[in-house]
Amino acid sequence: MEEGVSRVLPATRVAGESQKTKSRKLGLVSSTSLVIGSMIGSGVFLLPTSLAPFGGISIVGWLFTAVGAILLALVFAKLSSIVPKTGGPYIYTRLAFGDFIGFWIAWGYWIGTWTANAAISVAFVSYLNVFFPALAGNNFLSAIVALALVWLLTWVNTRGVKQVGIVQTITTIIKLTPLVAIALLGLFWVHWDNVFVPATGNQSPVSAISSVAALTLFSFLGLETATIPGDEINNPKVTIPRATVFGTILTALVYILGTVAVMGVVPRDQLGHSSAPFADAAKSMWGNWAYFAVGFGAVVSCLGALNGQILTQGQVPMAAAHDHLFPTRFGKVSKNAVPTFSLVLSSILISALIVLNYSGFDSATAAFNFIILLATTTTLVPYAFCAMAELMLFIEGGKEFNGQRLFGSSIIAMLAFAYALWLVYGSGSDAVLWGFILLLLGTPVYVWQRKQQAGQVDLEQAGMESTLEKTIQETNRASEEKLAG
Fold it and tell me: What is the DSSP string of 115-181?
């Protein structure tokens, strides 16, 4: 198995690392913060409003989503222990299914990452309206603030992964404080009659649960974040699995308890029209100061999520470039071991979407919102492939994995795969159609990259043949001169 891994993965510096190198890497706390911080972004602060029409059944939907997310976390935990390398979903699928599928997953994952980052940036500005009313309705000023945030965090990421981990740990603590306070203390203020109310509309229970799962999905995207910078984590075979599972479980608990508390404190009629449900719940329980405190937590939440996701948007293309599947420039790193070109290009694309969002045209805004839905769909595809990649790696591992371990992994992987399929279905036909088209757009890039590789090989062969011909000619000339002499 190790021979197969080393044959397709870029070389790492794990062996013989200096103490100084290790000190610049991420530990368990920073890695877990990266997972939690990447998941807890802007979505959770608005979800109670979206879930209000579903009443008590939304809690059931949350539980389904949480179980599915934990299954996916277990898949990524196992994969990261087998292949503790930089690249995450890309590296796992390439090792299991080959170059094209690996490229396809890297392409889709990259699109989903920087598109979601644009959404988080816009959400950050919307939460700032609580503190800076001048931003409300001023699209030009809002765009400037969003762009400044993106490029500030891009600069932070260029300083090295250790600085990213420090920022992530601080922002995670700040954002978790109000959420945990509401999730735990808020239960003492809950009116359970507000929670256990029937869903509105004529949806069946199964349909309602599916809808809730689709709405809550975005809040769990990023659970695999610790697997992306695998080479930049201390003891990755142990740290990454623990960070992934611990982070997912803690986040699920905060989500579910927080939703119950908000739904129990804020009546459904009021909750359905709230633009800041967690803040409104805090105000009802503790007064105006709590409203602003939770608003601050929401701002920091977006900041932390964007920080972690900007790290991801550079690492996946870098790993693909190291394997000659993305253009070479994506793989070049700075003196801080950061793929600067990949980071900067992704942030330029984010900036384009931000400008599009604040352009003031309804059609542009609608297009941007639809792209966000596509980002979710293109992220689900890597999740589904990774579930099957675990089985492929176990099967190809041969005698290294006994039947009992294979059986246990098969159950988890198949359940995770079914969960991903269910959520793809719940995303809607339009999102699936256009998401597939976006993925197909990567195919010409793959073909072009292969052409470039073939051309490089031809040039090298031509150079070798030219050198050989010159050597033969010089040898013949020397022989003729010797005979003439």
Answer: HHHHHHHHHHHHHHTTT-GGGTT-HHHHHHHHHHHHHHHHHHHHT-HHHHHHHHHHHHHHHHHHHHH
Task: Report the C-alpha gap between 161 and 71 in whole angstroms.
Answer: 28
Q: Is 401 exposed, middle or buried (0-12, 13-18, 19+ CB in 10 A)?
A: middle
pTM: 0.71
Helices (H), ranges, 40-130: 47-51, 57-82, 89-97, 99-128
d(CA 236, CA 165): 15
CA dihedral 127, 132, 137, 138 (to 10 degrees): -110
Question: From residue 136, how far is each of 128, 142, 339, 358, 367 by CA, in Å?
Answer: 9, 8, 36, 12, 21
Is the CA virtual torsion 231, 233, 236, 241 positive or negative? Answer: negative
If you ran DSSP here, which 8-state letter would residue 233 be given?
Answer: B
The Cα–Cα gap between 411 and 78 comes to 13
Looking at residue 52, the DSSP 8-state letter turns out to be G
Interhelix angle 340-357/139-158, nearest 10 degrees: 170
The torsion angles phi and psi of 26, rounded to 5 degrees, stand at -85, 135
Q: Is the dihedral of CA 37, 43, 46, 49 positive or negative?
A: negative
Q: What is the DSSP string of 272-293?
A: TT-SSHHHHHHHHHH-HHHHHH
Question: Residue 193 contacts by C-beta under 8 Å, 6 or more apart in sequence?
Answer: none
Decide if 124 contacts 391 (C-beta within 8 A).
no
Q: Are 375 and 119 in contact (CB under 8 A)?
A: yes
Residue owning tokens 């891009």: 154
166-196 core/surface letters (b: 16 or more CB in 10 A; e: else): ebbbbbbebbbebbbbbbeebeeebeeebbe
- For the stretch 246-300, pLDDT in tens is 888 888 888 888 888 888 888 888 887 776 788 888 888 988 888 888 888 888 8
3-state secondary structure of 427: coil
Under 8 Å between Cβ of 211 and 202: no
Q: What is the pLDDT of residues 379-417, one digit of tens each?
A: 888 889 988 988 888 777 655 555 556 666 788 889 999
Is a pLDDT exceeding 80 seen at residue 437? yes
How far, in Å, CA of 74 to CA of 129, rounded?
39
How far apart are alpha carbons 63 and 156 in whole angstroms? Answer: 36
Residue 247's Cβ-count burial label (10 Å; 0-12, 13-18, 19+) is buried
* Sequence-separated contacts (24+) of 355-360 with Cβ below 8 Å: 355/143, 355/147, 357/118, 357/122, 357/143, 358/122, 358/139, 358/140, 358/142, 358/143, 358/146, 359/139, 360/139
3-state secondary structure of 411: helix
